[in-house]
Amino acid sequence: MNSAEDRRNIGAGYRNGRGGAATGSVNKDCSPHPSLSDSLEGEIRAFLTDEDELHTYDDLTKVNPVTPTTVLKCLQARYRVKVFYTHAGCTLVALNPFQPIPHLYSLDVMKQYHCAPQPQEFKPHIFIVAEEAYRNVQGQLQPVNQSLVVSGESGAGKTWTSRCLMKYYATVAASSSVVKSQDTVEKIERRVLDSNPIMEAFGNACTLRNNNSSRFGKYIQLQLDRCQLLVGASVQTYLLEKTRVADQPTNERNFHVFYQMMKGATDEQRKEWKMPLGQHFVWLPKAEKTIEEDCFLDTVEALDHLGINEERQRQIFRILAGLLQLGNVYFSPPMNESQPCDVEEHSKVFLQRAAELLCVPAEELQQCFRVRTLQAGKQSVLKPCSQADCGMRRDCLAKVIYAQLFEWLVTFINNSICADKSTWCNFIGVLDVYGFECFHINNLEQLCINYANEKLQQHFVAHYLRAQQEEYVSEGLQWSFVKYQDNQSCLDLIEGSPVSVFSLLNEASRLNRASDANTFRARLEKELRENINISWDKFSMVPHFTVAHYAGKVDYHIEGMVEKNKDPVPPELISLLEKSENSLLHQIFSEKETDNVTSKGLSKVTVVSKFKNSLESLMKILHTTTPHYTRCIKPNPDCKPLTFKKEEVIMQLEACGIVETIHISAAGFPIRIPFRSFIQRYRLIAKHSRLKSQSHFSGMYSLLLCP
Ligand SMILES: Nc1ncnc2c1ncn2[C@@H]1O[C@H](COP(=O)(O)OP(=O)(O)OP(=O)(O)O)[C@@H](O)[C@H]1O
């Protein structure tokens, strides 16, 4: 990876081209011409001299010259005086304060932005983005539906921002209600907002980078009726990191809900869940740590509001308690290899408790872990599992139960908050997906997460950086192209056809034998070595491949990747769960055959295929909406209040191409209205002007330069 300094130098070649579109004077200055770079250095120095002024730049398009250094300095100056939002052309940059700033998000502030004739004239704020999207729906300009894309790395503030947006709409889109009784409106807003604590309890966890890290992606569609009132919502989730249930990375925690139960249970519940105070659970690391999100009552209250009755809640918590018990079950190798493994003596009590809580016979549960049933023609043959296999089957049971329970909850939430299609006509979508991840060891989970980020970056590039410039050219405007980093070749590497990392992974997953990491690595190298985005460290002993993502290089370990992609569930486990006397568990596993779990326990669809399909559906939705981008920035890696680390920030700014965005925004035409709407709207005032004749317009849109 380049150092921050290197990248700063690359970026420093750009200059502000404000107002330059018409004259074609946008300088993409990548030339090493000494006099040019000298003069740029001079301009930068001159701009930075007036330090007291730097925080006043509400919109980075006004910075001159626009370079990574000048942009960074302005953001730093603003952060110092506790100004956290800044416009960057079409994007809003949100710096995480890492401390509560209540006055910034009060009801009064919401109302101010909502009621202002020109909210853009107010200080930059996430409410401007929210209000702009809302007014676009009111204005019915095509495309009417809106998407608010919130991106940034882990801990940057995406979930926080999404919650804030939802609260905004729950306030402004309901408070003007006169049509519905206060009761109904309150109920739907409340339900929509209550979906957050539930999904966060079950889908978020404390990681090294964020105490409340979302371990899944979500797109929330807020449904608006003809009067732009919030009448419902629906949630689409993406790729829950279910491995965390049975395997928590060092110094990280399991999903919040387990800690909430452990800390918030009443004596009676403790007894029911077989969770005595002080009991150690292997799958509950760092239980001594207390965080804000450990509040069990909030989750229960939200479950109540969403209409999950007491009995259902009991079933949910019993299942979760059963999973915790499973984590304490260990196996020892048998004396004789032809015999199944033994459950370790001190584990037996946990196996018994798990069986009771999951409402399945303990004997059968034990058998499922220790013995595999093989089909030989019409005959079934029983084969003892190795010690490692027993552990894998235990983990697999926990993961499949947790993932299906999460899915059931999301479906329940949707049934509870989704409005009837006849009652809503437009929507505002809020997208909050996990940020780009690069750990010491990365595997399939990180590959999928980073692939999702590549897709979103591509959407931004295609929608804004490329399409906008192409449009100026097609409109016959004089425009010199601003260079940007296009990530298409990285996407081709990951998902392209006929050969890509995903296609090769799927090919290896289809083979009916255990995969070998070195063989897979050799296959990748043979097929993909031409692609500039993939490389290998020749001296590494660990089978891996390195992908150059738009946000940086990531090494992926291959060991276990193919198995993860298959995500097989032994059929015995599913058959056992179908028999559970916990009616929720029984319902989850017997009512429907999900994509990945069939009654035969086999995976029909690989993880990457399923993920790719769900992302493609998301992209289709995004393409039919008007997007609004918010880039959340994490000012320091330690989540310390009001601490701004330049190196951290510059890397994030560069990764999302903020300088290029500012250039294009500054030089371009920020307002675009389709001709038909433009003429409809302004015909009246143009009686004698050329507007009457469409022949004067060559392109699709009226492009307006802001003053
Ligand atoms: N505008 C804000 N005001 C105050 N605190 C904030 C704000 N935005 C974020 N935070 C703080 O930063 C923490 C991390 O934010 P958040 O959980 O939204 O990050 P994220 O980008 O969603 O991370 P991940 O990708 O790991 O889910 C929050 O828990 C909150 O404490």
Task: Give the SSE map.
Blueprint: H1 4-11, H2 34-49, H3 68-80, E1 85-88, E2 91-95, H4 107-115, H5 126-139, E3 146-151, H6 158-175, H7 182-203, E4 204-205, E5 213-214, E6 217-224, E7 230-238, H8 256-264, H9 267-273, H10 296-305, H11 310-326, E8 331-332, E9 342-343, H12 348-358, H13 362-370, E10 371-376, E11 379-384, H14 387-417, E12 426-432, H15 444-474, H16 488-495, H17 501-510, H18 517-528, E13 534-535, E14 544-549, E15 552-557, H19 561-566, H20 571-578, H21 583-590, H22 607-623, E16 626-633, H23 646-655, H24 658-667, E17 671-674, H25 675-682, E18 701-704
Parallel strand pairs: 2-16, 3-12, 3-16
Antiparallel strand pairs: 1-2, 4-5, 6-7, 6-12, 8-9, 10-11, 13-14, 14-15, 17-18
Helix pairs in contact: 1-23, 3-23, 5-6, 6-7, 7-10, 7-14, 11-12, 11-14, 15-16, 15-22, 17-18, 20-21
The protein binds adenosine-5'-triphosphate.
Residues 96-98, 100-101, 152, 154-160, 210, 212-214, 434-435, 632 line the site of adenosine-5'-triphosphate.
CATH fold name of one domain, please? Kinesin
* Reported CATH architecture of one domain: 3-Layer(aba) Sandwich
- The helix fraction, in percent, is 40-55%
Principal-axis shape equals globular
* Broad structural category: alpha+beta
Please count the helical segments: 25
Low-confidence region ranges? 1-32, 175-183, 692-700
Bound molecules: adenosine-5'-triphosphate
CATH class of one domain: Alpha Beta
Write the CATH homologous superfamily of one domain. Kinesin motor domain
**Residues in β-strands, percent:** 5-15%
In which order are the strands of the major sheet placed? 1-2-16-3-12-6-7
Oligomer: single chain
Task: Specify the biggest β-sheet.
Answer: 7 strands, mixed
Report, as a whole number of angstroms, the end-to-end distance. Answer: 40 Å
Number of strands: 18
